[in-house]
Amino acid sequence: GAGVSQSPSNKVTEKGKDVELRCDPISGHTALYWYRQSLGQGLEFLIYFQGNSAPDKSGLPSDRFSAERTGGSVSTLTIQRTQQEDSAVYLCASRTAIGAEAFFGQGTRLTVV
Amino acid sequence: GQQLNQSPQSMFIQEGEDVSMNCTSSSIFNTWLWYKQDPGEGPVLLIALYKAGELTSNGRLTAQFGITRKDSFLNISASIPSDVGIYFCAGQGIQGAQKLVFGQGTRLTINP
Question: Which of A60, B47, B63, B78 has its CA 20 to 30 A from that of B54?
């Protein structure tokens, strides 16, 4: 597809389980962001990948959160030992190397029960 | 770190009214972006601003990049029901590789 694709669209998991969220950016986009949005809240920055540079992980809330970007394309956000406070919509966005305009996916709604 | 203050947090208006919202920062930005988010969707880019003083329109939407490079506003004229949603400003710092920083959002509700 032409846009940013995220999967799954919804995920319900039990507290303590690990989850993996996937993001397929727009082809050719070298920069990729992950944000978290709690219900009715703004966008909380998590992590930023730009080309081959070391990722900016300054927004990851704890060491239970990690992300990878393989081959400069697909990215996976992993949350280990999920907690109820991890419940939120996780949004991925991508952009070109030059422009600032980022394009978002539909998000993954994570519910930890 | 860089922060954006977006106001107002929410607006309740009548259909047909004009809307104005703004973002301010203590830091200089070289790009300002405005997004709209509908329920259950990801944010969609509305307008991008790249130069101080730039005024850009997209239909009934008009946005400006402040002269000081520390603020931006978004106006919506003659609001219609489909304008309902959450509007976010975002800024990118003076170094091109920096991440986008988002405002807290303005929730727009329109009474028919």
Answer: B78
